[in-house]
Write a structure and sequence with these properties.
With 437 residues, this protein is of the alpha+beta class. It is 31% helix and 25% strand. Strand 17 and strand 18 form a beta hairpin. Helix 6 crosses helix 13, helix 7 packs across helix 8 and helix 10 crosses helix 12. It starts with a strand and ends with a helix. The relative contact order is 0.14.
Length: 437
Amino acid sequence: MYSLGIDIGTTSCKLCVVSSNEQNRTIFSEQLTHHAHILQNEFPSYDEQSSMKILEIVQTLLKKSGSLKDDSSIKSIQICGQMHGFILWSSKSPRTIVSSLVTWQDQRCSNEFLSSLGSSLTHLRTGYGLATLLWLIEQQKGKDDDLLKYDRAGTIADYVATILCDDEITNKSQISTQMATSWGAVDNKWPVEHRLLPEIVEPGTTIGYYKKTIPIYVALGDLQCSVFSCQPARNEGIINISTSAQLALVIDKLSSNSSQIQGDNLLSSMRVPYFQSKDLLVAASLNGGNILSAFVHLVHSWTSSLNNDQSFDMLWSRLIQLGLQSTTTIDNISAALFGERHDQSMSASITNIRSIHMSQLNDIGCVFRSICHWIIKNLFEMLEKDSSTIKGIIGTGSALMRNGVLQRELRERVQCEVKFNEHSDAAYGSALFALIQ
């Protein structure tokens, strides 16, 4: 028997087929970039993706896996994906009446708007699904309500899971505790009421069936599935760097430090639901592979302006090579290009530049290494004192696996053993979870 795991990421989708007869061996795995980002010239603070492009890539992966041809051996399907994001659709015509995906990187909810929501919602940040819904409701005041055509809401993973269901069990949308928490639910309950908010259910809940026989479980968070794929030992931390970055530690549900709020401020680390009787203590940074990509795009733009036709991929390889050769890092650097949820005032900068520092700035490998150094340092600083309980590290995620500079900076940061597992990722984790249900 096989299980299918599908991860819908910010830049790509991945499908993994795992066999139950061969020690959970992966028998098929493929990843495709979805190019779903929608340019926002008029509203630069918006960050949206085309739900249809993402769905097309998922269908392509299913065809390439051969799962659609021979489904008699498929035990179950589990979908996971980017968290926090928000999408609307109609259960009557989900393929045609569907909104774009408002992603976790969206910045439309200003501090002024968020502060107007009341004391029960001080934990919300821009990019959270619940904040996005409340913003959309606010925009409809005094207008024809554009939300009336929708009766379902969820993450992009919830939407894709619904599309794959030939036979849904319930006529109400459902969302897992993992995804609901990323939206802004508190203790698995919504702090406000609205007809579009889905029912919160536990991981492993069957939401429908593919071809009327194969169960599809409620969508899970990509973070939780990435951690699950590593099967960490006690006090073994997981560092995952893809588009964003996370440092996570599995903890007991009943242990202390459960509050995510300190006064009116969001803590830099938070507790999120994991599986069974466990939670994850996680430092979830908005800055990961995306800031390295932004830096490479910046350098590529500069070199192109100087009539240097070096390809983007060659530039990536060269910067990693130069970063590995670099012997120093820049002290006064912040690479917080996308801010952080707990401190939206954070930004990217290099400060205190004097003539004596120019040798470092002239060394582009040093600059690249310094950004990698900051990504790792920022994660451990966000986890604060809890990082001292970590006795080992498992590294995963596409940006970390492809970047020797990030790997070196991680090894130099910690005193414990560091293992890199390129075969552990959210798609594999979701397939593994489906297999044991």
